[in-house]
Amino acid sequence: MRLTLVTDAWSPQVNGVVRTLERTVREIETLGHSVDVIHPGSFPSIPFPLYPEIRLALVCPGLGKRIDRSDHVHIATEGPLGLKARNYCMGKGRRFTTAYHTRFPEYLNNYLGVPPAWIYSYLRWFHRRSSRIMVSTGSLERELHSWGFRRMARWSRGVDFSLFRPGTEEEREPVALYVGRVSYEKNIEAFLKAPLPPGFRARVVGDGPALEELREKYPRVEFAGRLVGESLAREYRRASVFVFPSKTDTFGLVLLEALASGVPVAAYPVSGPIDVMEGAPGGAGALHEDLPTAIRQALGRGQSDECAAFASRYTWEKSTEQFLGNLVPRLGPRETDMRGLARRNDRKNWQLRRDNLMLAR
User: Looking at residues 249-274, what average pLDDT do you find?
Assistant: First the structure.
């Protein structure tokens, strides 16, 4: 199988979308399939004004040829590159799948005051001709359905158990940990302002546009910057509770990494945490409308073995199996027949016009 994956989000960006796509590509290639990733680094690009580290490819020479070489086309993002791929597939009558990874309506409303309904209108149009829209959770699917999205299919996530694993009691410290982008849409200040039990300290791992401002505003908080690999895994293992303050994430890979590391989760009962923690034992953490309450409850209930056992339900192998099952052939029987019918009708219409012209003469 040859897959073309089109995405506006790719390395060196560091976020859940990129990590999900990179791991999925790795799993697919392990199965013996070929994946051609079309990303902004393939073309001349410009920085996105709100996030300069995000590059936008506005001119994409050779895009169509690369799509034509594949058996399946998946468009992961709704940015300029994804739009060009969508329009190319539409023009050629080729089927494709898409995914809904990011809550752009809420983000743009927070940053620029753009009404969410305007952005949802564009996203609904973008995904309307997708054969399947992959979504990570049931609550997200229900929410998008209320906005008029159809033909959705589930694509969950996984965690790397060879890297993220429970630590020892000696490693554990009185640390409340946040891992993720340090940006305002993550609602990170709800965590930084939250009162912690005596002797506990707040620690933030990650980078982003708000890092320097928050570091200056909260001098008692430990900001470790961006960490990856074993350095990141050690941060999880030393924490006593993982705090996830975001109310706009569609899933939250870091939730799984914390649980796999034996760390209980404290979060709001919103889309993402609700879905990830569905069916979790009490020792895996707590969800509460008041974040400090969730932190206290998670610390009081937290059981390392329960956290890790629950996280074991999420594997990248299962996630990739879901992804592959959602793909559609670039041209299915119905599309092939319809294109053939359209060509025959075009020939008949041309012949009819030619005969009428001859009679008129």
Answer: 96
